[in-house]
Amino acid sequence: MPKEPWQMTRAEYVKLFPGQLSVRIGGSNRLLDKQNQAFAAAGISLRDCGQAFHGHWSNRHAVMPDTPAARELLKRVGGRVAREQPDFHSAIYEHRMLVKAAVREGKPVPAEVLAEYETKQIAMF
Q1: Mean pLDDT throughout 90-118?
Q2: Residue 73: in which H helix or E strand, if any?
Q3: Domains along the chain?
Q4: What is the mean pLDDT of residues 23-39?
């Protein structure tokens, strides 16, 4: 039986995201809406890692599959690749939030997973 994300170590969790690109899209709010619609229409899912609003301007940081079609669409809509490798920082943050939620919900989080966050995040739980 496969492990739940909160039962995995950080290394195991990050391996779930091979072949991903960290990307930035945005500009005017209208442009960002059009970009988001273009990705949705093409069936390319973006995993959000943050969004910044500056009045009438917005930037979206996301992770997407690294495929030729996704790269072509990114170029066509005016986005850019922020990093060529998986966005490990976002995956680790996401994992920490999943572990934190599991602890709060009383789920049996393995000791080796808790130990990864214990030294730096002792107050997290």
Answers
A1: 87
A2: helix 68-76
A3: 5-14+89-124 (no CATH), 20-86 (3.30.2130.10)
A4: 83
Give SS3 for 6: helix
Q: Please list the residues that pair with 28 across neighbouring strands.
A: 57
Locus of tokens 């809406």: 33
CB atoms inside a 10 Å sphere around CB 42: 14
SS3 25: strand
Residue written as tokens 């966050």? 117
The answer to whether the predicted template modeling score (pTM) of the entire model surpasses 0.85 is no
At residue 84 the predicted structure's pLDDT band, cuts being 50, 70 and 90, is low
Please check the confidence at residue 125 and state whether its pLDDT lies above 50. Answer: no
